[in-house]
Fold:
Amino acid sequence: MAYIETYYKRSMTEAKVRPALTGVVECDTVIIGGGLAGLTTALELARAGISVVVLEAEQIGFGASGRNGGIVSPSFACGEDAIARRVGPQAAKALHRLTIEGVDRVRATIDDLGIEGAAPCPGLLSLRRFDRADDMLAHAALFAGEYGYEMAYLDREALRAVLKTDRYFHGLRDNRAFHMHPLNYLRGIADEVERLGGRIFEGSRAVSQNLGVVKAIGTARGRVAARRAVFAAGGYADGLQPRLQRGVLPIATYMMISEPAPDLIGSVIRTREAMLDDRRASDYYRVVDGGSRLLWGGRITTRTASETAVAAELRREMVGTYPQLAGLKTDLAWSGLMGYARHQMPQIGQLQDGVWHCTAFGGHGLNTTAIGAKVLAEAMLGQSDRIKMFAPFGLVWAGGPFGMAAAQLTYWSLQAQDWWRERRG
Ligand SMILES: Cc1cc2nc3c(=O)[nH]c(=O)nc-3n(C[C@H](O)[C@H](O)[C@H](O)COP(=O)(O)OP(=O)(O)OC[C@H]3O[C@@H](n4cnc5c(N)ncnc54)[C@H](O)[C@@H]3O)c2cc1C
Structure:
């Protein structure tokens, strides 16, 4: 299957096609899944001289990693309070530090590998849609004090100088966060894995496994025999590894890209930073293509919804925020699947001797796959036991169809809470 049509596919800087696996190939570590989790793990291992093979069912970046919002910022999909409730405040802070390390690692990878097509652009504005700032200011002060992570407060007037809307009351500017072209970034990593001797096979869905002393992973036309295996199939996992399948729910989310209209867009959004409102069920957007198009994302569903219908909802949100954009046409809309565990934290660990997993990054995977891959590789190479920080977030049953229903209800309830917070102020 080819890439689905997305803005990223259309603006991909190179279109190298990789072969499907045929015959028997041997290596140290076979990785199942050619998204950010799988390929960043491959990169970390290949840098240490380990021979790796990556099996991707479709094409590199076919999944969430090639379709996402491109915003690289600290934190996990799970809120900090929930993490602290599970592991205590000190462990929660250590985990949060990892997410900042993840942001810095992505930036360093772009720089080190010279991935020009990733086009990183600094800045993220977190936006508040009701008039209360005390908790926002406290959050910024905590981040500065605890992590040395500075964010600047913007009042309504300062926000209006860059965003021509009445919707936002308060904002935080994070200059260490950035946004980028995720598919070009991922393809840059794939090139580097190959340059270091790793092999990547596309159109090579893993369909069978024998996880004895030798890990044998079969595809339609070939087989990889390895000492170790890593499962990293995210929200696209297809049941090959039942324990992982039980622990991860595929949740759909949506994006759209506008037609080119640089003057109109530039008249209402006068910044190249990314924007993210701080509702529990938030929307995010950014100007791309040298300022000519607007990329807008949001909404989640547990059943695959029609992209056209969800794009209409996203448009309603966009026009509600910027009535001036009522005439801006949507060029394209698409969806992607995120993998979510019930605890909303990544699942990184060991299933059995020589069998590892790196998955469930949810809607916050750009920084967290970088650090997830790093701590996994450190564990596999015997360099550190930082992977243990993820042990409290194990492979719990995500609830199957009941979990899907619960996730949808939770989202609707978050939307209702957002609505109430905005009305109440
Ligand atoms: C629309 C959207 C917007 C998002 N926006 C952001 C954002 O702005 N910032 C952020 O931090 N995060 C964002 N995310 C989340 C982020 O994209 C994901 O958390 C991250 O990309 C997950 O990476 P992954 O490698 O685990 O999964 P994926 O990228 O989904 O990769 C899994 C791969 O495994 C392959 N696969 C599955 N089964 C097999 C098999 N049996 N054999 C071989 N291959 C297999 C699939 O084809 C797929 O390519 C967004 C996600 C979506 C969908």
